[in-house]
């Protein structure tokens, strides 16, 4: 959160079950633990967000 604190207008956490962890930016899914089987490192998410 601190990396993009000036750029984030809205941040929302949506509870789910079954170990699902997904990250969306501007309505597009940029990461899915369900698809990869791996919980992401913060640096991986930052890299994906920077490339948008």
UniProtKB/TrEMBL annotation:
It comes from the Bacteria. Keywords: Redox-active center. InterPro entries: Selenoprotein_Rdx-typ, Thioredoxin-like_sf. Gene3D superfamilies: Glutaredoxin. This is SelT/SelW/SelH family protein. It comes from Neobacillus piezotolerans.
